[in-house]
Structures are given as structure tokens and as C-alpha cells.
Amino acid sequence: MLTRKIKLCHINAHITCRLCEGYLIDATTVTECLHTFCRSCLVKYLEENNTCPTCRIVIHQSHPLQYIGHDRTMQDIVYKLVPGLQEAEIKKQREFYQKLGMEVPGDIKGELCNMKTHLDQRNGDAKSEDTANKEAGEEKPEEDNDYHRSDEQVSICLECNSSKLRGLKRKWIRCSAQATVLHLKKFIAKKLNLTSFNELDILCNEEILGKDHTLKFVVVTRWRFKVKDKLSLRLVLPVISS
């Protein structure tokens, strides 16, 4: 088969953010028009605008942040195409948390371990599978087998705001900051014996949360200035117009 090499500069327009003009980091796509940007750039832009930065289509009149979603496929493509980008970004994130005196989140730790393994294999320093498994078993405690235990955790208070919903027996839960609102809706729907999680809406500060938002994103964008250190959410049944 004939192969043709393509220079990175020829596809830069497809893997860069229109707002910061850098390579996409935490790629986030507008569901209305499928244009993609860095998450931090797009969130900051949508604080004062409700249109797509590229095509100017109205995303939503009042809640545009509910109509954007993390694009893992695009981000994987960018990291594979741009040498050293992922390693540099993870290093920046680690240095940022260390500078603030905060513990590095579990997902960044996991990426650092994976990155180190790939570099060792690339340099021919990878150890035999048996040796690696033995060392991993000696160095890692058993609780590390559960990936989400090392994630940054979020404490949530769930309150029912509908007379048609029965309250939860335990309104306080603690889970990974990487969990999404959709995960939360499915969990609550099962606990309340609802036929579908679509029967439920979750609100924060009287604003309906988008299903693709992570709890970390909700805390940063809607709860960061609150005095309380635990996220408070309300459960309601959506109003269906006849």
C-alpha cells in the first residue's frame, strides 16, 4: 500500500482552538454545531455570550453551558498527533496543584503513570510482564485496584424539591469528581424506583444541570464562591407541556 506523509501544519486548523489559537486541551464540543474548543476557553467565553465563537449560532438563550460536552475522541487525536503535548500538559497540571499545596487528583496521577510506562517502553527499558506485575503488587495497596478511590472526591447534599418524589433515605453522598450529572441521575432514578432517569432533573442554584457536566465542573462553575464546602443539589420532576 502507498502511504503519504502529511505535515502537522496542514491539519493545524482542525486541531487548534479558535479562541486561544493553541492546540486543543480538554477538547469540548458545542452540540448544536459541533465546533470544538478548549474547555476553559469555551466556558470563559460563554460567561458573557450565548453563541458559538466560530459560526455565531445561538447555542441557548439562557443556559449555553448545558449544550457543550467533552470530546474525548478529538482530544485523543490531538495528543497522538502532537508530540509531547500530553506530557507537557500533565506536567503543568501537576506543578499547578503542587504550587497551591493541593494533592494531585487521581486522574492526573494515573496519566502520569501511563505516560512513564509508555516512555520506558519507547526507550527499550520496559521490564518483563511478570516482573512488572510483581512490583506493582508490592508497591500499590489493594485499594488502588479501584481507580476512582484515588480521584478527587465531591460531597453532595441531595434534596427533593417535588411533592411527587419521595425523599432519599440518605441525602448525603460522596463520589468521584469525574462522575457526570448523568451518572448521578441514573443512580438516583434507581434509588427512587423511577422508570427512567429522564423523569428527573437536577438543579444547582435553581439552574438545571446538563447531563454531560462532571461534578468537578459543577463545583468550579456554580459552587466555587459558596461558603459551604459541600455541593447542594435539588431533585425535581421536569415540567412537560401538553
UniProtKB/TrEMBL annotation:
Keyword GTP-binding, does the record have it? Answer: no
- Name by which UniProt lists this protein: Polycomb group RING finger protein 3
Q: Where is the RING-type domain?
A: 17-56
Q: Where in the cell is it found?
A: Nucleus
Which species? Neolamprologus brichardi
Q: Where is the composition biased (Basic and acidic residues)?
A: 121-139
Q: Which UniProt keywords apply?
A: Metal-binding, Nucleus, Repressor, Transcription, Transcription regulation, Zinc, Zinc-finger
User: Per the UniProt entry, what are the Gene Ontology biological process annotations, in alphabetical order?
Assistant: nervous system development
